[in-house]
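Input for the complex:
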Amino acid sequence: MKFLRVDMKTKTVKTEDVPPAYRGLGGRGLTSILVNDEVPPGCDPLGPENRMVFAPGLLTGTALVNTSRISIGAKSPLTGGIKESNVGGTVPAALGKLGITAVVVEGQAPEGELYVLRIDARGEAALEAANECKGMRTYALVEKLLGTYGEKNGVLCIGPAGEFLMSSASIQSSDADGRPCRAAGRGGLGAVMGSKGLKALVVDLTGKSPDALADPEAFKEQAKAFAEILRKNPFTGQMMPALGTAGLVSAVNSLGAFPSYNATQGTLEGWEKVSGEALAQMIQDRGGKTSHMGCTQCILHCSNDFVDEKGGFVTSSLEYETIWSMGGMTGIVDLDAIARLDRLADDIGLDTMNTGVALAVAMDAGYRPFGDAEAALEMMEEIGRGTDMGKILGNGPAAVGKHFNHHRVPVVKNQSIAAYDPRGMQGNGVTYATSPMGADHTAGNLVGQYLGRALDPLSPEGQVEASRNAQIAMAALDCTGICLLAGTVLGNPKVLDVFLKLIAAKTGEDIDAKGWGDMGIRVLKAERAFNRNAGFTSRDDRLPEFFREEPLPPHNKTFLVPDEELDSIFDF
Amino acid sequence: MKFLRVDMKTKTVKTEDVPPAYRGLGGRGLTSILVNDEVPPGCDPLGPENRMVFAPGLLTGTALVNTSRISIGAKSPLTGGIKESNVGGTVPAALGKLGITAVVVEGQAPEGELYVLRIDARGEAALEAANECKGMRTYALVEKLLGTYGEKNGVLCIGPAGEFLMSSASIQSSDADGRPCRAAGRGGLGAVMGSKGLKALVVDLTGKSPDALADPEAFKEQAKAFAEILRKNPFTGQMMPALGTAGLVSAVNSLGAFPSYNATQGTLEGWEKVSGEALAQMIQDRGGKTSHMGCTQCILHCSNDFVDEKGGFVTSSLEYETIWSMGGMTGIVDLDAIARLDRLADDIGLDTMNTGVALAVAMDAGYRPFGDAEAALEMMEEIGRGTDMGKILGNGPAAVGKHFNHHRVPVVKNQSIAAYDPRGMQGNGVTYATSPMGADHTAGNLVGQYLGRALDPLSPEGQVEASRNAQIAMAALDCTGICLLAGTVLGNPKVLDVFLKLIAAKTGEDIDAKGWGDMGIRVLKAERAFNRNAGFTSRDDRLPEFFREEPLPPHNKTFLVPDEELDSIFDF
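Predicted:
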């Protein structure tokens, strides 16, 4: 249990005990509460006063499956509010196994200097000059860093977009095969890392000093039970390995809630060509991997390896949200093109969602035609080069809308929505509008309830309550390090009970369902407090007007949840 | 007393009696209260829901000198809040003489269509197609329009910047010589006009149906007295005709409060070369006009005609704020270059202040060197062509700062400060921070008090009170149509008394000093209400951090007024 405090100005790293106020916290709970405590809400997100927190989940580093997950928190240059973005790969579990509760990065390196934070197998850390990495894309960078430090290392890093301080810049995380293809995409945290002069964290994967478990026997038993539950659950045990998240393409198109052509249609013409089924078939025919372990200790294997016609590796993993943003929103129904766009996004270090939507807004404004894959690839290269237009595109949909004076910009708090239209899934619209994170499906996604017919997606009734419950549950879940897909099983009270026993066996403190909810509420309250102090009001908890004004085919509904209901969502 | 309601969608103009709620209001009082009543605070400033109000002052159209002044109001695309920008020229008096209390422009013309609103000598109005004016700069445009409609017309119009919907776009007003050289510059209202598809208002100057005066005899007597006061006052009667507003260059440099090189210095190296004295000498030597009547009924003649070495007309009027923004902020100590930049700004239709500061931020970020006049002229032409970089520059300092990730951006609510540094004139900093208009010297300028040693410019003491009183007085003054420079005499209670008698003789309702203050407070309250409903909080009433962190030479002071004091300013 220790904090690493990294001061970029003095280039020193201090190890300290976890301060009492942060004990028992992990993941998003730790990042959000620390950011709310330590970051001046009015500060420049790209200035020296902002702080970045890298915090593995409470259960990360234990033997529990699917817990190699890290939360990264800071004030966001995209939303201007608090941000947590989490990612898998290998670094999260490795930090957990080193007993590192959080890495807090403060200050800024002098202009033009670039550093790598190296954390060795004993958990000791130092900043090492890395000016030779300046401008490097992430695939080449990770290859170079693993060459220098050895294959048994994991990397969190930024590409050119982060160095250019673009608002869509991601932090890429290396996967089990040592490729930087998993992303903490949202909120432009790559730009914060760039502003600090930090190109990468390189973490030894062989550490063996995790925090002790309070009750190792109970933990072992419940961990085994939980893994068994995941294997037997049809969604986590079958659909994920078979189709990955891309399985949702057909389902959400069937529901008419797949925002297409910059959210002017709810069904994508030709969605069959980019469905999870088509993707799996194509990968199989070409000899790629339809299923693959991306993160340490993962048993779901939602990941895939997309290969080109000759079997050459293109990208991993091609996921639902990227197929939507780079394909559905732009009208590009071509998996090869989408895969190349995804690879470019990973390589340049960009959120695929915010970036795909930025391209779509540019297309909708008439800059390039919908469906033009070559134009999309060229726009990505502009971003990678940091040209004037590249910067505009790399700053996301709101910047593009401003540049072209185009009104149809599907963002909340400047962050793009995800692959569920608020008019076709009203509750997801509530989450987009009200989440302290800006529009974010992972903050409280109701797609499972709509597919299961537990809730009418087109009626305004009951959506605020459903979104509230989902947001509280997700805020709690994001504290633990369990991956979101594995977390889908926690809706079952008996399964939640197993999970809470795991937490208790780790921490030594009992927790029941109410305590679980309280944890989520505590996190949301800290996040809302930060945003309020940064100047956010209920005005910021709104969808763009066009969602209320332009009906979405095929259902021809608008977003119907009243403002007053939105404003009541966090009356805890 | 009538409203013209112009619907750009249906291309119809309706005449209606002034609605009871707006009777007795004029100028900024009318625009702000109407905008707060009729414009949805959350609307897109460049969308169909925004409304533009053109309202001459209460006394405009009467025989009182220096009252050809019109307020233009709308939601601002620059600040996102309410905006009033006022301008002189010939149209304001002409509208007053036609008995037109306000022109309210609603809706939007179909994309690609452009119109002129023609108001004839009987006060009848119609929209006329003007697609042939598309893209025209303002000098050529006004020449063309006066050719079509006759010399005895006045014009309010936009240039390419307004058509490009840039956030620094102005509305240019033709002067007594029929040149579009006076500007309602602030807040990007030219972009709002562009978004509506309205290229120009062309108003017949020969109208003779002003509203009746309640007491014509008393009005005549007090109007004569007021003109006499102006003629005898040293500032309005002597300094303005001699040096114009440029006389402030030497004074404010002496005070060390002239923001130079993007507000990194309080004194401009070589300010003597761009002082009012140098300007007057140069114009005189070349055979230009050092003094000139820009607006109908003006007796101050603050205007000038700047000519080149061969005596050819360049621009009118070269003013203090422009010498500062295009010269002081950019380090260009060359009146010929500044005059050409001013001419380009008028011709393209740009706020000289927001634009000069945008160039300065780009220079400070390293894009071009300080002092490089050719680079500045090229940047202006980029704006005029609407290139990618031109749009960024034309959207003002905040957009430029975002593009280059440069932290030193002297704006409040996205609008640039004026030629008085908040560190060298603390009270002007209070006005910039708290005015509902964004940073705006005309909202409450204390330079007169500092020059007269009535207030210490470097101490935080007493500044909030002084700014409050100035803001209330200006809000009231902006209702009347009296020009700001003439209004400087109202600080004397006996003179204010004369002025209040003029208002009473016009309206038939007595008004005392308290009623005068109440009028200002009513306006400020409406403006603050609009901004609050648009999502503004006390967070928005702040100067950028660098003013608190970077001391300004030569006094090496920072901005010292505490936040809590700022927040108390409108506790009416």
